Amino acid sequence: MTLSIGKIVKSNTHIDYVCQVYNPGEIDPCPEPADYSFGTFVAIGLGEGEAGGRLVGVIYNTLLMNPDFGNLGPRLSPRQDLEIFTPDYLAETATLVGIIALGWIDAGGMCHQGVPALAATVNDRVTRMEDDQLAAFHCDSAGRLSLKYVPVVLSQNNPLAPPLLINVVDRLMALFPAQRGQLDLLRTNLAWKSIVQPAG
Question: What pLDDT does residue 199 have?
Fold first, then answer.
């Protein structure tokens, strides 16, 4: 069963999206923190019924929104009373996750890696990808392991990019044991990059 994590609320670039994770009571089952952890692969439905296909992305960042932080002034009413009498004044806390799009799945079910032509829109649903979907996305037309999106992720100039890709490689090692040698080499290069780049 595909688990819904949240919905798109904004974008920073054509491939960089922000998803608001569903709060308890918004959906059943409610996603747990492990369902939207760093390095989790997700699918973003394009439009109603996902007729336009789905974007494939990976979670690379988490941001917690708490409107009450720093609000230390006196209150006229306790919070419990506000919930009853003026619920519209209550600003909810929210968990936001950053997603970088790595490719797409077209309406026919074919997987493509790279920068997608189509973009997600506000309120598009975000679901967690299962291992079989993840494996299919990482196979080219000849059935070989493909990681064409690595240069796109590294070009984002984000200090989290190398650790993110190391996390992805570790997961792919379990799904593609025959390609463990290639993946181990890529992991070594990424680990070196994560040490050298911050040093300038």
Answer: 47
Rounded to two decimals, the pTM is 0.85
What interhelical angle do 161-175 and 180-199 show, nearest 10? 170
Q: Where are the alpha helices (DSSP H) in the chain?
A: 79-85, 131-137, 150-154, 161-175, 180-199
Mean pLDDT value across residues 173-187: 93
Q: Where are the domains of the chain?
A: 4-137, 147-200
Q: Residue ranges of the alpha helices (H) in 49-160?
A: 79-85, 131-137, 150-154
DSSP assignment of 78-104:
-HHHHHHH-GGGPPPPEEEEEEEEEEE
Q: 121 CB contacts (<8 Å, ≥6 apart)? A: 8, 46, 47
